[in-house]
């Protein structure tokens, strides 16, 4: 079994062991950099096969802004989950607030969304965390946001 605390990346198999999201709402494919609970960089490969492109918009597929913010939040959850060794422990994460959210460019099929997240507030054992995220495509900012989340972590097992 891999010790997640020693990892600095997370592939799709580890991501699915940490967060409960699945298709069509699993929106991060890989986390390529994890610096403890301080920061992380996630990757989302945007493909035409995603169901939201059927209606957003027909003939002009654009990734909805809310899914970009969700992808950033999932990256943050993976960062915390990897660092706190939450693989296979059924961690749940819930949005509490989204602030200072701005969208700067369209994200379309074929783009690779690179999401850089940093922790503004939060510590191991704490339930409420705040993050700041920037999503870019080819070095150009697509979106930015600050968001607060509640980490519903399983209680430690006492010996």
From TrEMBL:
GO molecular function, one term: (3R)-hydroxyacyl-[acyl-carrier-protein] dehydratase activity
GO biological process: fatty acid biosynthetic process; lipid A biosynthetic process
Active site: 56
This protein's UniProt keywords: Cytoplasm, Lipid A biosynthesis, Lipid biosynthesis, Lipid metabolism, Lyase
Organism: Sagittula salina
InterPro entries given in the database record: FabA_FabZ (IPR013114), FabZ (IPR010084), HotDog_dom_sf (IPR029069)
GO cellular component terms listed in the entry, alphabetical order: cytoplasm; membrane
Reaction catalysed by this enzyme: a (3R)-hydroxyacyl-[ACP] = a (2E)-enoyl-[ACP] + H2O
Role description: Involved in unsaturated fatty acids biosynthesis. Catalyzes the dehydration of short chain beta-hydroxyacyl-ACPs and long chain saturated and unsaturated beta-hydroxyacyl-ACPs.
Subcellular location: Cytoplasm
Family: Belongs to the thioester dehydratase family. FabZ subfamily.
Coiled coil (residue ranges): none
Name of this chain's protein: 3-hydroxyacyl-[acyl-carrier-protein] dehydratase FabZ
EC number of the protein: 4.2.1.59
Pfam family, one: FabA
Name of the encoding gene: fabZ
């Amino acid at each position: 079994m891999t010790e997640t605390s020693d990892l600095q990346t997370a592939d799709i198999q580890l991501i699915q062991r940490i967060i409960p999201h699945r298709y069509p709402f699993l929106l991060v494919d890989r986390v390529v950099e994890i610096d403890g609970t301080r920061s992380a960089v996630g990757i989302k490969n945007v493909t035409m096969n995603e169901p939201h492109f059927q209606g957003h918009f027909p003939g002009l597929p654009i990734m909805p802004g809310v899914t970009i913010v969700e992808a950033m939040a999932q990256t943050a959850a993976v960062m915390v989950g990897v660092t706190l060794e939450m693989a296979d422990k059924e961690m749940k994460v819930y949005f509490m607030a989204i602030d200072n959210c701005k969208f700067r460019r369209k994200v379309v099929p074929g783009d690779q969304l690179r999401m850089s997240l940093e922790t503004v507030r939060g510590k191991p054992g704490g339930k409420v965390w705040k993050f700041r995220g920037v999503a870019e495509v080819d070095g150009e900012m697509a979106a930015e946001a600050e968001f607060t989340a509640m980490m519903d972590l399983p209680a430690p097992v006492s010996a």
